[in-house]
Amino acid sequence: MTIDRQKLKKSVRLFLEAIGEDPDREGLRDTPDRIVRLWEEFKSHEHFNMTVFEDIGEYDEMVVVRDIQFYSLCEHHLLPFFGKAHIAYIPDKKVCGLSKLVRVVNKFAYRPQVQERLTAEIAEFLEKELNPKGVAVVLEAEHLCMSMRGVKNPSSYTVTSKLTGVFKESEKTRNEFLNLIHNGK
Ligand SMILES: Nc1nc2c(ncn2[C@@H]2O[C@H](COP(=O)(O)OP(=O)(O)OP(=O)(O)O)[C@@H](O)[C@H]2O)c(=O)[nH]1
Ligand SMILES: [Zn+2]
């Protein structure tokens, strides 16, 4: 779905009024338009070409891209949660362009989310597109709704993971992955 610009602009203006701001003052005058542009930018992450390569020689080991910075929004408070994503898969005759792993994260991150669903959606998408021997996704994030409000606990990190195929079945594979993302620095 595309952004309903008029509706969004109207609601941002109403929102500013509701919290006691003057939406016509200099700094806020263009804010509804800015929010429209911001959400259009967020939405633009939704579609991309998942380039896949099948000519990969004899390569059948793990591919890991770790420390992928991501930004998302918690769907309960619409406040950011952000951190690092670590993704691994073991190809079955098919790999994707490495940058596409970052794009997959962004595709599902730039929308109201919960961290668990984001983690699962990334893994499911890679399963579907690559049909690999297994996928592992770990997300580590700080939630502003827990840092700047509510329980006000900025030091807590939320870690979620989704493992499929060999990562689920084989402890050795899982440990290799965990070792690569945590100790391989
Ligand atoms: N499981 C999960 N919970 C989240 C995520 N992001 C935010 N939350 C939590 O969603 C919950 C929403 O709880 P509510 O009780 O409806 O909202 P609230 O009264 O603002 O909650 P407090 O944050 O405890 O003040 C809170 O506990 C948040 O910490 C997430 O990605 N996953
Ligand atoms: Zn929240």
From TrEMBL:
Q: Establish whether keyword Zinc is in the entry.
A: yes
Which Gene Ontology MF annotations are present?
GTP cyclohydrolase I activity
Enzyme Commission number(s) of this protein: 3.5.4.16
InterPro entries the UniProt entry points to: GTP-CH-I_C/QueF, GTP-CH-I_N, GTP_CycHdrlase_I, GTP_CycHdrlase_I_CS, GTP_CycHdrlase_I_dom
Instruction: Give the catalytic activity.
Output: GTP + H2O = 7,8-dihydroneopterin 3'-triphosphate + formate + H(+)
Pathway noted in the entry: Cofactor biosynthesis; 7,8-dihydroneopterin triphosphate biosynthesis; 7,8-dihydroneopterin triphosphate from GTP: step 1/1
UniProt entry tagged with the keyword Hydrolase: yes
HAMAP family, sorted: FolE
Family matches, as NCBIfam families: folE (TIGR00063), PRK09347.1-2 (NF006825), PRK09347.1-3 (NF006826)
Record-stated family: Belongs to the GTP cyclohydrolase I family.
Name of the protein: GTP cyclohydrolase 1
